Amino acid sequence: MASTKFLYYKCHVAFSAALTGFHATLISDQVLEGRLGPSTVVLDHTSGFEGLLLVDDDLLGVIGHSNFGSIRATTCVYKGKWIYEVLISSQGLMQIGWCTLNCRFNQEEGVGDTPDSYAYDGNRVRKWNVTTTNYGKSWAAGDIVSCLIDLDEGTIDFCLNGVSLGTAFDNITRGAGMAYFPAISLSFKESVAFNFGSRPLRYPFIGYRPLQDPPSVDLVKAHKLLGYLKNVIHIGIDVLEGKLVEKDTSTWQLQGEPTVLITLAHIFNHFAPLMCKVYLVEDVLMNFLLSILERGGSVEAHPLIQQLLDLMWLLMEDYEVHECLKQLLMSLLRAYRFSPIIPDLGLQIHYLRLTIAVLKHEKSRKYLLNNVLFDVLRSVVFFYIKSPLRVEEAGLQELIPTTWWPNRFTKEGKESKEVKEESAEERLRRRAYDRGCQRLKKRIEVVEELQVQILKLLLNNKDRGGGEASRYIFLNKFRKFLQENASNRGNLTVLCPPEYMVCFLHRLISTLRCYWDGHKAKAPAALSSEEAYVPPQLFYNGKVDYFDLQRLGGLLSHLKKTLKDDLALKANILIDPAELQAVTMDDLDEDEESATSTAQPWEARERPVAALAIGGALARPSWLSSPTLGRANRFLSTAAVSLMNPRRSLGTLEKMKARTLSVEQRTEDDIEGSHGNEGLLLGRPPEEPEQSITENSLLEILDGIVMMYNLSVHQQLGKMVGVSDDVNEYALALKDTEEKISRCPKKRRDIYEELVKSQKVFSEKLNHLSRRLAWINVTIYSKEKMQDIYWLLRVCIRTIEHGDRTGSLFAFMPEFYLSVAMNSYSALKNYFSPVHCMEELPGYEETLTRLAAILAKHFADSRIVGTDIRDSLMQALASYVFPTRTLNCHGDGCQDNGALRGPWGCGFGYRYTRLPHLLKTKPEDANLPSLQKPCPSTLLQQHMADLLRSDCDMAPSFLNSVLNQLNWAFSEFIGMIQEIQQAAERLERNFVDSRQLKVCATCFDLSVSLLRVLEMTVTLAPEIFLDWSRPSSELLLRRLAQLLNQVLNRVTAERNLFDRVVNLRLPGLESVDHYPILVAVTGILVRLLMDTDFQGAKRATAVFLADPCFQLRSIQYLLGHAEPSVLAATPPSADKRHFSLHTYTDYISLEELAKVEQMLSHLSEESKQAAASILPTSEEDLCPICYAHPISAIFRPCSHKSCKACINQHLMNNKDCFFCKATITGVDDFTKPASS
């Protein structure tokens, strides 16, 4: 025992001597020559900025909030070599560099636009100093720009991710009064974070010093203390022999040896305060922990990190541990986000492994979940895999040495009809490219698996020691995260970027399904993840907060009042009248707050400028600038420069809508339930089976995943398809160039050389894009990702089906479930093809059948009241009627199966992915999107046709809803173009609101889509209109004829309103033209009049001719026959071309044109015969309601009369007589007696 005390005494004396010798060896913190300003360098938020800016509370991150805002640092340099780093958070328009105090910037001119300012612009790849020239490389989000200035030599250099871009400027102005500040100018929504030296530079350069000195004294002290800590871990005390022995650090454990514990306590007494500083945590602690993991093996093979975290919680004050863990996670996240992509993704893997090691420590994990991961950090960044902009730096050339791209499309955007056999060379290239993609996929899967491990730790529900399990903390934070993104749709600085959401969604699905199936293994009676759905009671029992998201039946407060009896009867849930009153008052308060918040920008003009200067805090940190800072952002405006406070207390710029705060107060029992309490499943309706689904907490996570997809994931999936479109564009350009080279005359050497240069440029661009596309296909459009989206589609379908069975309670379901069902199917159909074929997914046909049933049933569902969701249902139906490029995915031999193509091969004249009228008039705008991609599901169409044929009640309800919506949409469109035309004709200068133009174009697109829905119905189930033994068939046909004639008359009249607005060619109305709407109408007419049996065509012809609005000239217009009166009034002009289907032969087949010619001849002949055979009708014999048709029906029992069309339409909504209000019990045919 005496020897042990002696050994401890020796250690203690040595340790104390080392501490007392610090000051003799430390480098003094002297003021450096060549630098002026505060030693702590930040952005100058008091006077050094121009424009509107949002600055993070640490004064190092900035977001542009105006056209071109500028800001400089607080410290300048006039001598020596200096460096600072800029972390690029968005890759837009920015100019980064140096400026002098005399530089004056404005909203148009920034850093680099004045004589004594110098800047690098990686967006446009240029350097700026009054004039501009090409320089450097393009930057991307996640890059780090180093800005170096040598005032001894008079040069400025820039580096990108540690690689020098060369000297940008030399011989810069120096001398008396010339000192340079770090500065930046950035456009709206662009963002960066600066590192002047408050953290270790990621890419230091020899000879250059950061503007802010590192904490040299603390740094040396921390490294020495860390050395002592390592010695204690490496060396143990052999009590028996009384000597120090070396130990294996990987197996070191704190076993309570008094000597070791006292020594460690002494070390941590000095070490703990240092670990609260970001520089020391990143440079000392993080690097030490990373070095432990560098020895290889799994994270579990390094328990030393867990032991060190135990030591920290034991020997440090709580506030010290909290700050240290926060700074450690901030450093890890920053390092992960801003590490360059290397071939093996080694840097990302390194930082993720340490993150996992830290989160494996239960106490640390719970603290971080409760206070840091969602409150201070943007931890979703950990689940993001950024896409490299420069494939050569990411090593993709080595991974994918051979590139390949498909050649499928013609110049007009149509798929080539010629199916060429793949040559042997192309086959080898494609296979080599696929092998490269597989190598890339394996490396990315390693990162994805680590990200899933992080989520598995956060969703652990077995770590109940010392408080609530991690999963329930995560649930509450996750719900707040969703609320933040759902309630701030207009505030882009608060929203999680969609690209992060996509990755987070896939990792969360993988983790959820793992836990779900794990529970199934323990409880065989529960459902597997393949059968997952969200039970309907979550939508109305108040256990899950949907923060005022729209329900299918309207506002929640309204539903609680109108359906309180159904809730009591079916779900045994009683609504307290006092709660109803409180809800109503809350709604009123929210409306007032919303109005006040909306008025703030305008009121700010009348307030004292101090109010704007003091500003307020955004509720959460910005995603765009520093992703790791949770404190408030500062709002800077040049209108209030003189009144800016250097450090202000945090306020609130706007209130977060958080009516339901009980989410944070929920316990595990409130979620999972216990002792008869069903938790989240409270209020099970009788239609819902009693079978256990899974753990209740997993149901809430599943609900959140569906909401995430609706918020921004679908939008991002559509956006990334653009890279594939670029590949097709360049492939077409390369093919065209190669054809020109082959045709080039040998004499024209100059032309040949230019073509070869173009060929080289296109080939290089395609090589770059094909490698980038490989990365995107692996990270976003892989088969596994497609299966995730398909699983989500099936979850939504099952959830909607279960909700539908609850009757009136279905109205409580949030609208986004229907939206995700439609959008996820659209994504599978349009975005993942042709990389992966949707038809290969398990249960594909059954899924489409169930989706068709949902769309057809709920299209006219009275429980759904929201106009937006009803419009979405219409658009979804419309998307199924457009032509498929090939039918070879629907079974062997289907491509040549005329029987399958005959009933519904395509919509009339729809064989394009770009608007044909734009290809003719404005080829440069031809890349504007079409109404829908020509990509239908014939299988889904057939299922819908079967439903409409078999359900005699559904078909009239569905079609009347379509006709009503078409009538509304087209009427709104006509009303809007009247206003647009009136504005254009006024003498004074007028501007048409861009929002009005957008709504106008939307109404037009909606009208075209609805016409396509009708065309599909007429094609697949014509008997619904033509079999008059079915109820309402005649009425439906008459209504259809009336609407088609109105559309034709409005669109085809010469020099009419439609013509004039189309000829204005207003931006925003590019899709509005004769072609899209006329071919849709023509398709319906051809199907009814030419492609049906004799009896059906006869009935359809009679109805169309009998309609008072029918005009034969409208049909003649389709084929370019101008109105005779117009030809006589105005001589033909060479510039004026009449519309004709004959000019669109690339999109309309000769067979279709022949049918239109036959239809015109048929209607011409029939109209002549009808005119000759119709006897004059006296006014007394006309229908007293419409005065358009003769009286043909008599009502029982009151014997009043009208035409059949009027009474049939009236009886659909009302059973009372037009005239006497008696209840009509029947309608009989009426024929006027001959004697009369």
From TrEMBL:
Enumerate the subcellular locations listed in this protein's record, separating them with semicolons: Cytoplasm
Where in the sequence does UniProt note compositional bias of the Basic and acidic residues kind? 665-675
- Where in this chain does the record put each B30.2/SPRY domain? 21-201
SMART domains recorded for this chain? Answer: SPRY
Which EC class does it fall in?
transferase
Region (Disordered) location: 663-690
Q: How does it assemble?
A: Component of the KPC complex composed of RNF123/KPC1 and UBAC1/KPC2. Interacts with UBAC1 and CDKN1B via its N-terminal domain. Interacts with RIGI (via N-terminus) and IFIH1 (via N-terminus).
- Descriptive protein name: E3 ubiquitin-protein ligase RNF123
